[in-house]
Specification:
alpha+beta
Length: 342
Amino acid sequence: MSSVRAERLVNLVLCLLSTRQFLSAERIRATVPGYASATSDESFFRMFERDKSELRDLGVPLETGKQSVFDTIEGYRIARQDYELGEVELAADEAAAVALAARLWDSPELAGAARGALVKLRAAGVEVDEAAGAGVEPKVRASEPSFGPLLAAVQAGQVVQFEHQPSPTAEPRTRTVEPWGVVSWRGRWYLVGHDRDRDDTRCFRLSRISEPVKARGPRGAVRPPEGVDLMALVRRSAGPPPVIGVARVWVARGRALGLRRLGKLAGEQDHAGRAGDVLELELRSPETVARWVGGHGPDVVVLDPPELADAVRRGWLAAARAHAPSDPADRSVEMRVGGAAR
């Protein structure tokens, strides 16, 4: 944003904050420094529309209304009670957490918003030390090319159109969507909104959206439904498959702690001379659970069901083939692996 435009926006905010009345566009043009450069009515209204959109994108509660029932022209104002930041008090550890969160974002689109939040906190008298927690360098990165255009469309309230591939083997399809938000869930980014082609709420994984993402229609035309929970929509759309059974596995004592957190202890049991425990795991996808189990080698043994043991065996065989020499004499590796899953 140019310094001239930034100064004009500040002047506009100060003007609309200083009055309880609704000011017409013409009165704003005559009062606010910066609009005198408009050479025509059309030029002024284009400039004013851009400024209004910019203020709304920044979270400024710009109100429209009429001074009385007899007025025919709408005016504008900013309600001070909606604009002013309430009293904020942060303990030292809370301020450090805020600073760490501000450094979390590695995407330019969100890094700017994080810096803006720190500026607002400092304006309210809260000093946030950005150097706090300097020993930790977390990053949240959105590598999908569609992330920036989609986030911009959400902030502008504009309809978007893009090519979307429902699955890796499906043909891409053109989708026209009213975007409500872009959220991250389980390491993936999703666009949530109203799909005009399906006339229903839909979630789209950003990694399956190809460029270009095209904004359609006027700014401010899209508003999310009141009280919509974007994360709940994503969880229902991209959540885990239903539970189809229970898997029983033996886990060596003191091993596979991550697997233990996912399972339910069903008792103690020795296996092949080693002490251990029997765990029960929710079985949604045998292939997924097989990957969890197979990575622990002989420290975890599948007891039931047989299809899970087969899936683990297939994973081990694939790994053995990938790393074993091409010499046919080494087929003994596959023989040993094939009998170790159960």
